[in-house]
Design goal:
It is a single chain. By secondary structure, the chain is an alpha/beta fold. It has a 5-stranded parallel sheet, with helices on both faces. It is globular, with a radius of gyration of 14 Å.
Length: 136
C-alpha cells in the first residue's frame, strides 16, 4: 500500500487545514495510507500528544480511514519531516507552499540544487505535492 505523509501545525492553522484537505484527497485517490505529522520543536517547550493531534484532525475532518498520527520532537521542522518521509519510505509528501519555501532555503544551504521536488525525488524517491496558501 502506498503512503502519503502530510506535515501540519498544531493547533491546525488555516494553511495546515488546506494542506491536510489536499493530502486526504490524494490518499483517497491513491487508496493510500496517510501519515499526519506534527513536529514539536525542542526549543518551544510544548508537548503535543498523538491524541491531541488526532482529536484536532478528526474535529476538522471526521474520522479518517488508514490514518496514522505522528508527533516527532526535533530542533528543525524540515529535518524532522525529511527523516519521517525517508523512514516511512513515503510515496508522496503533501506540503504547504510556506513549508516548501522553508525546505528550499534549507536545501540551498546544503546543496547546489534548490529544486526541492527534484532533490526529494533523487534522494527519497518521493513525489512532492505543494498546496498553495489561500489568498485573502
Amino acid at each position: 500500500m502506498s503512503l502519503v505523509v502530510v506535515p501540519v501545525r498544531y493547533p491546525l492553522s488555516k494553511h495546515s487545514r488546506r494542506t491536510l484537505e489536499r493530502a486526504i484527497e490524494v490518499a483517497r485517490e491513491r487508496e493510500a495510507a496517510l501519515t499526519i505529522l506534527h513536529v514539536d520543536l525542542y526549543q518551544n517547550g510544548k508537548k503535543v500528544t498523538r491524541i491531541d493531534l488526532k482529536n484536532a484532525v478528526e474535529s476538522a475532518f471526521g474520522r479518517l480511514e488508514r490514518a496514522r498520527y505522528v508527533v516527532r520532537t526535533g530542533f528543525l521542522v524540515e529535518e524532522s519531516i525529511l527523516d519521517e518521509v525517508a523512514a516511512e519510505a513515503a510515496d508522496a509528501v503533501v506540503i504547504g507552499s510556506k513549508q516548501a519555501s522553508r525546505l528550499r532555503r534549507i536545501f540551498q544551504r546544503f546543496t547546489d540544487n534548490p529544486d526541492i521536488d527534484r532533490y526529494l525525488r533523487s534522494h527519497l524517491d518521493c513525489e512532492v505535492i505543494t498546496v498553495e496558501s489561500a489568498r485573502a
